[in-house]
Amino acid sequence: MSIEEADVCKITESVWSTTFGFDITKLAEVPAATTEPVLTAFVLLAGGWDGALMIQCPTALARRCAAQMFDSPIDAVTDSDVNDALGELANMIGGNLKSHLPGACTLSLPAVVDGHDSGVRVPGSHSLMRMAFASEGEVLVTILERNTTAGKSAA
Amino acid sequence: MKILIVDDSRAMRLIVMRALRQAGFGDHTLVEAADGAEALALIQDSAPDLVLSDWNMPKMSGIDLLRALHEKHLMVKFGFVTSEVTAETKQMALDTGALFLITKPFTVDAFKEALTCLAA
Q1: Helices (H) and strands (E) in chain B, counts
Q2: I need a surface site. Which of A5, A110, A119, A154 has the fewest CB within 10 A?
Q3: pLDDT tens column, A6-63
Q4: Who among A18, A81, A95 is closest to B85 (CB)?
Q5: Residues of chain A above pLDDT 70, percent
Q6: Cβ neighbours, 10 Å, residue A69
Q7: What is the ipTM of this complex?
Q8: 8 A C-beta contact, residue A148 and residue A124
Q9: Does domain A5-27+36-146 have CATH number 3.40.1550.10?
Q10: Where are the domains of chain A?
Q11: Nearest chain A Cα to B7, which residue?
């Protein structure tokens, strides 16, 4: 069994629309990075399939998502709330992804970092797929990285 | 009925409580814990009727919480609310004594179905 881009796309869209109540639309291409502030949430997968699932989200969009999840005005949402909400989003997408991966995997707790995905690197991994989605005029990027060197010691 | 919601995400605890209210369980007492260890202490102190627990959490996972409850002979109805959706996970949950597993993201109907069956 191998993971297909269509699976990741379907999971991302489903998690997003069920959690936030509005749809996202997959873009044909991933736009070039901007200077807009971005948060990256990720979970690590280990076991039968090793890698990472990352969600790169403009900070303004992440704040709106957190407000929706907390049912709170945007102004009342704290940075901690935003990290919590975006981390949970990565957790849900990563968790749902597990059933599409070969072999038993464990899922790490989510983590969130401030900055473009250049701030997050999983040693030994390469980008397997990268897709962009539009939501409320902003672009969310889902990245799946695979580590094919996990468990292999250096000679 | 007292329902304990266990999740390390405060956002998710709020979403679960909102779903419970929308599913018609808003008049029950809803209490929260941020991980399995906190939940275990709360269950020992206040004996909830139902535990709705996440799977992956710091300090003590949901499945370890369920095992600890068995070891301590603390009998409480237990269901998972988790993004862990593999067949192996579901089987492990049921084999360990969970009554149901609600998959994140969920709909209000998922809570109606699971909890109405319990109340019946």
Answers
A1: 5, 5
A2: A154
A3: 999 999 999 999 998 888 999 999 888 777 889 999 999 999 899 999 999 999 999 9
A4: A95
A5: 92
A6: 25
A7: 0.90
A8: yes
A9: yes
A10: 5-27+36-146
A11: A88
